[in-house]
Design goal:
This is NurA domain-containing protein. By secondary structure, the chain is of the alpha+beta class. The protein contains 17 helices and 11 strands.
């Protein structure tokens, strides 16, 4: 028997029921209410997605994905290569960034900034393609919402500290061009960790008498708003409500559910038995993002001096960054929903900028997720046409993912070897730091 497996077997015996319940079920008291809310209020639209399917050649699609490799070297520096690829039929668009730099922060923070560079190259590639005349559908592998939700702070890369200013400048250029040229931009992700649909449903049931007990509507709503950003304060608030009222209904279970990072796709899989899609919801910024925006609106230079402590000594940077920050109010809201093409599969998360389906709503004007009544049939047609079954959630994105994939051997033998030749250092196996990021 493998070492430690006997101990693992004991853990299975001890925790079998706990693990099963934790994986499949929300708290019992609210689970049935959420399921009823999905079906009774028609937040789930049952439909055969195949009814939207068309021929792939009906669409002019630019599918975009990216990849990276990096290595921490013995002198403490980081060598990285990030590349993005866009495929449009036989045409391809490419972007690549390679650099050697010194970084601050943990391994997680360094990995995170390199992943943001992947997103940046994807956005840049899409923007340049539209500038060059592309006017079809841009498909990006991943969430669009996540791409406009990053906090604008100084980068841990010592020679690219202004990265997040460049990032948002590129985002706004892309959206501006897409809107002017009537380009549909769609983000598609499978098994996303998002919780916006669950949060929306909880807001719908929070004022039901069986949920809030004797607590007023305003107090119940305050509880769920507080839970999203100030968890400790929310639990203290529940204690106060229990002292004030003899019956607070299911609010304590609601709070436990809201503070559990349970993804939407798990809720949908547990509640839905037929193909279809969730009602499209307008998404706005997080509470933390809103606070930062308010700081920017009140004092953009003060914000930059706080969040960019090193670069803020450069007057040219302050002028440039202030212009970008002042344009953040132009960011569109993101419309997001989940599609279940096949009941045997996991739901796909779909994101589109609001202007792509006829809404002028801005990102910072949206609070809690709210339904939007706009035509999404064209988006559904693209999702249905691109769906390739259980193994291929999108045929266009599957192809570009395969082409852009960055294998470690390729990085070591072609990119890293050329770098060491350039800097004149013989990097053998002992010269690498023990910790790799990928």
């Amino acid at each position: 028997m493998p070492r430690f497996y006997d101990m693992f077997s004991k853990k299975i015996s001890e925790k079998r029921d706990i693990w099963i319940n934790r994986y499949h079920k929300p708290p019992a008291g609210i689970g049935s209410l959420i399921k009823q809310e999905i079906k009774n209020k028609k937040w789930w639209i049952p439909v055969s997605i195949k009814t939207y399917e068309r021929k792939p050649n009906d669409f002019n699609v630019l599918a975009i994905d990216s990849s990276y490799q990096m290595e921490r070297l013995k002198n403490g520096g980081l060598f990285y290569v990030v590349r993005a690829l866009g495929l449009n039929g036989k045409n391809e668009h490419r972007e690549l960034e390679a650099d050697f730099d010194y970084t601050e922060g943990s391994a997680h923070e360094v990995t995170s900034i390199i992943q943001r560079k992947m997103e940046y190259l994807e956005i840049k590639l899409a923007r340049k393609a539209i500038s060059d005349g592309f006017n079809g559908v841009v498909l990006i592998d991943g969430s669009l919402y996540g791409r406009i939700s990053h906090l604008i702070i100084e980068s841990p890369l010592s020679n690219d500290r202004e990265f997040f200013i460049k990032y948002y400048q590129e985002v706004m250029k892309l959206f501006k061009l897409a809107k002017e040229n009537n380009v549909l931009v769609i983000g598609i992700s499978k098994e996303s960790g998002s919780k916006f649909f669950r949060d929306f449903l909880i807001k719908q049931i929070i004022t039901l008498p069986e949920v809030r007990g004797e607590v007023s509507d305003e107090e119940a709503k305050k509880l769920i708003s507080t839970s999203l950003d100030r968890k400790r304060e929310a639990f203290e608030y529940v204690k106060q409500l229990k002292l004030k009222y003899s019956n607070i209904g299911l609010l304590e279970e609601i709070l436990k559910e809201l503070t559990t990072p349970r993804p939407d796709y798990q809720l949908i899989e547990a509640s839905i038995t037929e193909p279809g899609y969730t009602v499209p919801l307008l998404l706005g910024p997080s509470s933390r993002w809103v606070r930062r925006i308010k700081q920017i609106e009140m004092d953009p230079i003060g914000y930059l001096k706080t969040q960019f402590p090193i670069l803020s000594n450069n007057e040219d940077f302050l002028k440039y960054a202030k212009v970008v920050l002042n344009r953040l109010k132009e960011l569109p809201a993101i419309v997001s929903f989940h599609v279940l093409p096949d009941k045997r599969d996991s739901p796909l998360r779909i994101d589109v900028p609001a202007f792509c389906i006829g809404s002028s709503t801005k990102f910072q004007d949206v609070g809690w997720p709210e339904p939007i009544d706009e035509d999404i049939s064209e988006v559904l047609s693209i999702v249905a046409t691109g769906y390739g079954g259980l193994d291929y959630h999108n045929i266009w994105l599957w192809k570009v993912d395969r082409e852009v994939k960055f294998h470690r051997r390729e990085f070591d033998e072609m990119y890293l070897s050329k770098f060491k030749e350039l800097v004149g250092v013989n990097l053998n196996a002992r010269d690498y730091r023990r910790v790799r990021f990928v």
